[in-house]
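FAQ
Q: What does a multi-component entry look like?
A: The components come first, one per line:
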Amino acid sequence: MEYRKLKDQEDDVDAMREDVESRAEKAHSSAGINPLSTAGGGLGDHSRWKRKSIVTLALTFLTSSQAILIVWSKRAGKYEYSVTTANFLVETLKCFLSLAALTRIWRREGVTDDNRLRTTFEEVKVYPIPAALYLVKNLLQYYIFAYVDAPGYQILKNLNIISTGVLYRIILKRELSEIQWAAFILLCAGCTTAQLNSNSDQVLETPFQGWIMAIVMALLSGFAGVYTEAIIKKRPSRNINVQNFWLYIFGMIFNIIAILVQDFSAVLNKGFFHGYSLITILMIFNHALSGIAVSMVMKYADNIVKVYSTSVAMLLTAVVSVFLFGFHLSLAFFLGAVVVSVSVYLHSAGKLRR
Amino acid sequence: MEYRKLKDQEDDVDAMREDVESRAEKAHSSAGINPLSTAGGGLGDHSRWKRKSIVTLALTFLTSSQAILIVWSKRAGKYEYSVTTANFLVETLKCFLSLAALTRIWRREGVTDDNRLRTTFEEVKVYPIPAALYLVKNLLQYYIFAYVDAPGYQILKNLNIISTGVLYRIILKRELSEIQWAAFILLCAGCTTAQLNSNSDQVLETPFQGWIMAIVMALLSGFAGVYTEAIIKKRPSRNINVQNFWLYIFGMIFNIIAILVQDFSAVLNKGFFHGYSLITILMIFNHALSGIAVSMVMKYADNIVKVYSTSVAMLLTAVVSVFLFGFHLSLAFFLGAVVVSVSVYLHSAGKLRR
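Then the predicted structure of the entire assembly, as tokens:
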């Protein structure tokens, strides 16, 4: 049951990533991935498909390397930095990267209505909402552990997949074909199967309150994701870097509050950068880039793609960990991986043709 | 991990059923299900669909009640009768039921070319082949336990699902849509997931020889099933009861050989019916009827339907055992059941439309 280790660590990854996401959803680009930093108007089908593929692959790669960095940092026994200061730095870095991308665009294309930084209350008034939803979810997280243990919570978190699908349908009113719904149920079952271990059956003994909390948390998390997509897609021509800049400003504000509430005395006594190491810096860069990738996926693809991308990343992480850390994969992992793979195939085979 | 119990017992059910199947594949009808005993010519789409549904439901019901009878008989501690004599009685009973059905048909329709009992060497020369394949498979079964334990063998037996699908495609040249292939892979993964327990990972340590034997056995079993379908469908207008009669005659012959080889001294010393109880009689009737149901499914549906039917029966058995015997279902069982259910849906949703 070596695979459990990885799962627990992924829990942290997810917790941290959701923390990061919670402050606001992200974006940017600059440097390497130039096509992404353009406003996106007037692209052909092929270019759009290519852009969607690039951001999806980037998210998959970044999410799984995130998990691997966490495992690595824990192995090295270096995990004593404050998570709130790290999250603040992630938001700040994302903000900086968005501004850098914007600077390039302004130089190349000049300042237009779509890429100007100036905004209106009308535009940004909804930007803090996803962050607020994640905050409530993260608060609930402390209480759910009264009813479920950490590996059990990890299993229940797969409810996020279903809640995202349902809210995607209800709020964004985008349709999935019946085959795609079947694929989505399989994705949830497959991810859960891949995480099974000898203690998983304890989840079935979760008390009623635990189930309710898990469902509420799944709904909050799904709602935050779908709402972010709605915000970003509401103004399709608006430059993603501007949208991200404002989302990340709120992210920074929320993280300052978190530092004040949770870690103020520790930061005052030990210093802001106490416990930081090379791995911590790498993790902050990785979180910033994957945050931006999530935002790009929201802009150019959707929440469904995001869910598939992070699920596949979970499998990739486990496979890579076999080589890096000598983990053993369980039969349940193989079966789950088969089901997730078939689900990915069915999602694409089941596309609505109109 | 209470569910394990059931699984092990199902192993016996399957072993016995395959023993039964091995002698020859079955059929009949008479009494209750009258439409089934007609030759099947000139039926409308609706009637054909109805007949197919009835035989499929009958097979599902009989397979799962078979498993439940086995559990019950083990609980009652009554399992000391000789399996070979019981199998001989099953074949004899099926033969008798086929003849009874034929007698009714002859009285109603008169003797025709399609329902006459007289046959040619040309017609029956291939009838012993499935029985021979099962015999080889059952012999191999003794050797595979040198490499895998019983629960591990139970898991590896799910390879039958894949081998049946592949041989169905190759030998019967019937096509499945891509969605249906995906559904078939899911069926295999789902059934295996439903059977997972804390020791399942040992299967991954099966030595190379064990894997080869498991694959060969899956191919033999799949080939026997597909070949039986080919035999029965070769003469569509030939009455199923006549086809079954001849298959069961070979079944009786093979079982006499098995009694002579394996149980001759026991039968001579203790008597043919030693250890028989009410449950044994019920089990013999159940095996005879489900044997006939398998044959009907081969005639009016196909091997794919048979595989789905017995897989769903496996799930039903587990659920019914919760109420009958107080078994606990594992999380893996629920996940497997979800995957199997989605697979059933996809198989029907993915039908080739031409």
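Q: Is there any commentary attached?
A: Sometimes. For this entry: Residues 45-75 of chain A form the longest helix (31 residues).
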